[in-house]
Structure to design on (329 residues):
């Protein structure tokens, strides 16, 4: 198969590696000229995560990338997707299949990422979503994991999952695009909360965080028209180990450093997702106490400047204990 991967950062470079090295597909890897991630790969042929197979065509020519392949995989920052699609749709992409291998909610609109593609002119039945647990550092060591492919069109979902599966990644078919996208995005918010607990010495609270976090995310998914049970699948709960516990998790690390009054400089999608989810909770009338706490910690305090990040962040999270006693379910 001919595959183009748009975005050559952490996940984008891994996807290109996976498609070429494991699946033996013809791969074009695109990144913007001058971008740090692209220039590293262009100069060295590798980054801190993967060494690109020599068969991969690395390019900064977007037209070349989107016209050469039948399937286009996008892996960029969620908040930049809408603007990026304005560039992509300048080229003939009507017959292309788009696979989103990225997690987030558009902060300005509260839209899911597949909705952003639809509003950008991509046909609904040509969009698939690839989410679920897994760290590049583990995959490249040959340690397998399970992931999920979801789509509006049943045949497309089956085609992508069956084409992309291997002994390294076992795919399941999703059956709830709303739940898959919201669940995948929301686990990053829980990752920040877990990091704050780690950094503050309250690690034992990660058990309640997981139980209550999945429950509130399920309520939001259900209110948005998805299935409550999706919060307990691979897109959300199944991704907790890699997001709430792993040393490789950017979101967990962001929260941990925030608790120490220091700033994590790499991308942590959970920050803007917390803001988007808070607004979605208000819109749909769903209480999201953990999300609200993460939102307040990220946007309503100044832990990076104060040097008292641990106290401020934990003060916000421990306010959850002041809520009235209620039935668990």
């Amino acid at each position: 198969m001919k595959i183009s991967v748009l975005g050559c950062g952490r996940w984008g470079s891994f996807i290109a590696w996976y498609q070429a090295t494991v699946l033996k597909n013809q791969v074009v890897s695109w990144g913007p000229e001058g971008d740090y991630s692209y220039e590293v790969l262009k100069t060295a042929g590798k980054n801190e995560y993967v060494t690109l197979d020599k068969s991969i065509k690395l390019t900064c020519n977007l037209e070349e990338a989107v016209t050469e392949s039948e399937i286009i995989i996008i892996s960029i920052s969620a908040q930049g997707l809408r603007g990026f699609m304005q560039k992509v749709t300048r080229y003939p992409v009507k017959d292309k299949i788009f696979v989103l291998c990225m997690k987030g909610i558009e902060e300005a609109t509260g839209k899911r990422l597949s909705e952003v593609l639809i509003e950008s002119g991509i046909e609904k039945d040509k969009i698939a979503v690839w989410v679920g647990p897994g760290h590049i550092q583990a995959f490249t060591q040959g340690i397998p994991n399970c992931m999920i492919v979801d789509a509006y069109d049943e045949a497309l979902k089956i085609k992508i999952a069956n084409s992309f599966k291997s002994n390294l990644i076992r795919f399941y078919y999703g059956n709830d695009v709303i739940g898959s996208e919201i669940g995948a995005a929301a686990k990053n918010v829980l990752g920040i909360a877990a990091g704050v607990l780690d950094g503050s010495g309250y690690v034992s609270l990660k058990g309640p965080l997981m139980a209550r976090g999945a429950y509130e995310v399920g309520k939001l998914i259900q209110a948005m028209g998805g299935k409550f049970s999706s919060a307990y699948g691979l897109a959300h709960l199944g991704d907790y180990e890699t997001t709430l516990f792993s040393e490789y998790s950017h979101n967990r690390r962001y929260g941990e450093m925030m608790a120490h009054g220091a700033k994590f400089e790499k991308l942590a999608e959970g920050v803007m997702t917390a803001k988007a989810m808070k607004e979605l909770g208000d819109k749909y009338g769903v209480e999201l106490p953990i999300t609200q706490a993460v939102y307040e910690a990220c946007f309503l305090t100044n832990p990076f400047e104060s040097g008292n990040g641990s106290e401020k962040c934990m003060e916000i999270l421990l306010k959850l204990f002041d809520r009235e006693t209620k039935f668990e379910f």
